[in-house]
Write a structure and sequence with these properties.
Number of strands: 12
Structural class: alpha/beta
Largest sheet: 8 strands, mixed
CATH superfamily of the largest domain: Periplasmic binding protein-like II
Number of domains: 3
Distance between the termini: 47 Å
Order of helices and strands: HHHEEHEHEHEEEEHEHEEEH
Shape: rod-shaped
């Protein structure tokens, strides 16, 4: 039994006229009649009463018609679902991110959800090393991390270079300045990201101070950038944070730009070179 037999039968059953059915199907009437006969022979019972005056459904034909309609609807639904999957418009997309990229990725993900509402988008906050392991394991499709990262099994694309700014308690003596130099903070105590949570961010902060000619005094290390800002507000120390964190309106914290324009961090998408997910490919195309 072929799919076209079902379509032919449904059309004849709806028209109850072989000529009109053949016209709808854009085929000649004799082949249509032959196809219906083949279907009936395969089933072993008649689906239609036919004579020169009329065509009618048998009781078996009435039951078969309803089942054929359901079958064709299921096939159409299956074809549509497969097409959406081929287009990357359905399925699941697991994305990891580090906390320091939070304010950058929110508009990206909002835009993606608007374009692909049927995709199950699952977001995981993870430190960089865990994201890279999750990529290797296949438990996430995409990592959003601070780079550079050197790994021959991974593709990466820089999507943002973001300058550092300084987070200060609003009672700090330097709060009256509109901008600062890194050297101005040589005697300050710093709250910095834990190295085991994100070595790139940690090392970038340390290197920024070294370039300015001093080793930072560290009062606290913490794995979360939101925690860093919270403790700045408590007066525990000052911190270098990505510029996007000006959007974090913590009471008791102010942000000041650095005069040095070359101090920045990269944010990148990272994914496995062998990754076949069409959902991911469409995400990356949209991000272009």
């Amino acid at each position: 039994m072929e799919l076209r037999h079902l379509r032919y039968f449904v059309t004849v059953a709806e028209e109850l006229h072989f000529g009109r059915a053949a016209s709808r199907l854009n085929i000649a009437q004799p082949p249509l009649s032959q196809q219906i006969r083949q279907l009936e022979n395969e089933l072993g019972f008649p689906l239609l009463f036919r004579n020169k005056q009329r065509v009618e459904l048998t009781e078996a034909g009435k039951v078969f018609l309803e089942e054929c309609r359901l079958t064709l609807k299921h096939i159409e639904r299956a074809a549509n679902a497969a097409e959406q999957a081929h287009k990357g418009a359905t399925g699941r997309l697991d994305i990891g991110f580090v906390g320091s990229t939070t304010y950058n990725i929110v508009p990206i993900l909002q835009n993606y959800r608007l374009r692909f509402p049927s995709v199950n988008l699952v977001i995981h906050q993870m430190k960089t090393s865990n994201q890279l392991q999750a990529l290797h394991d296949g438990s996430i499709h995409l990592a959003i991390v601070r780079t550079p990262i050197q790994n021959p099994l991974l593709n990466s694309k820089v999507i943002l270079r973001e300058k550092f700014i300084v987070a200060l308690p609003d009672t700090h003596p330097l709060a009256s300045r509109t901008s600062l130099r890194t050297q101005d903070l040589a005697n300050e105590e710093f709250i910095i990201p834990s190295r085991n949570n994100g070595s790139i961010y940690h090392d970038a902060v340390i290197n920024l101070c070294y370039k300015a000619g001093y080793q930072p005094k560290i009062s606290m290390e913490t794995p979360e950038i939101l925690t860093i800002v919270a403790f700045v507000s408590a007066g525990v120390g000052v911190a270098f944070v990505p510029a996007s964190f000006q959007n974090q309106r913590n009471i008791g914290v102010i942000y000041r730009e650095l005069d040095e324009a070359d101090y920045s961090m990269e944010m990148s998408f990272v994914w496995r070179k062998e990754e076949k997910s069409q959902v991911l490919q469409e995400f990356l195309k949209l991000m272009e």
